[in-house]
Amino acid sequence: MDIDEGPFASFEPDGPRNDDGAEGKRRLRDIQLRFVVPNIITVLAICAGMTGVRLAFEDRFDTAVAMVLLAAFLDGLDGRVARLVKGSSKFGAEMDSLADIVNFGVAPALVLYAFVLNAAGSLGWIAALLYAIACGLRLARFNVMMENRDRPQWQAAFFTGVPAPAGALLVLLPVYLGFLGIKPDLHYASVVSVYTLVIAFLMVSSLPVWSGKTLGAKIPRAVVIPVILGVVLYVALLATYTWQTMTFTAVAYIALLPISLRMWRKRAAQEMKKKQTAA
């Protein structure tokens, strides 16, 4: 260990350490803050997810779900902040992948298990376990597909399978319903176990899910005010009727999955027609 580094290994966001010359050491010793901020957000997301698990086992489920959703929000924020401040790094990408497994896989599974799945005994634990594993597989596949340069560009507008953040939102639907008055008894726990397995299957499936990336960074001038009002309305409903709004959001997402499949098939047919015309 280099004595000048202190008790901790150097933070090297751009890859392996380069000890060739004093200038290289100086460059690695002084890391710009823009590389650190996204990683701080990622760590805070992990803290929120793990705190949600603790609160769930303390029977403070409303706060537990809020912490898991906060973890999902922070986890989605770190990448955008990194791109905004040009602070993306290989270290940050690896941290983000690990955080995704905790925030979208382990934390929601344990919160759901503590709330209702434990009433189903071994079946409930198996459902929670398979969901967490499916989330890990989903994230690993996503990372591999990101490195695939041969994938047609139009397919980048779709996820393959339900993305992990959406999976966390959907798998917690039984908790939202529980807050609305449904009692987590044995029958309900059995149904939720099956539902959890369905969400796990959707995450690792090849179902095309529209990602929204094709919307771009600009919107028509005429829809600016309606978009602002829509966002304000949703936030107001979320703050006032939290669990009703979360239930509606999850159900609406599930209802839109067939539309995503139809959009994929339509686009695939168009691309096939272009190839045939070109040939």
TrEMBL record:
One cellular component (GO) term of this entry: endomembrane system
Region of interest (Disordered), ranges: 1-23
Membrane disposition: Multi-pass membrane protein
Keyword vocabulary terms for this entry: Lipid biosynthesis, Lipid metabolism, Membrane, Phospholipid biosynthesis, Phospholipid metabolism, Transferase, Transmembrane, Transmembrane helix
GO function term, MF aspect, one: CDP-diacylglycerol-serine O-phosphatidyltransferase activity
Pfam families noted in UniProt: CDP-OH_P_tran_2, CDP-OH_P_transf
Cited PROSITE patterns: CDP_ALCOHOL_P_TRANSF
Regions of compositional bias (Basic and acidic residues) in chain numbering: 14-23
Compartmental location: Endomembrane system
Catalysed reaction, written as an equation: a CDP-1,2-diacyl-sn-glycerol + L-serine = a 1,2-diacyl-sn-glycero-3-phospho-L-serine + CMP + H(+)
Listed GO biological process terms: phospholipid biosynthetic process
InterPro entries registered for this protein in UniProt: CDP-alcohol_PTase-I (IPR050324), CDP-diaglyc--ser_O-PTrfase (IPR004533), CDP-OH_P_trans (IPR000462), CDP-OH_P_trans_C (IPR012616), CDP-OH_PTrfase_TM_dom (IPR043130), CDP_ALCOHOL_P_TRANSF_CS (IPR048254)
Domain spans labelled CDP-alcohol phosphatidyltransferase C-terminal: 224-258
Record EC number: 2.7.8.8
Bilayer-crossing regions: 35-57, 122-144, 156-182, 188-210, 222-241, 247-264
Family, as annotated: Belongs to the CDP-alcohol phosphatidyltransferase class-I family.
Listed name of the protein: CDP-diacylglycerol--serine O-phosphatidyltransferase
Organism: Oricola cellulosilytica
Recorded name of the encoding gene: pssA
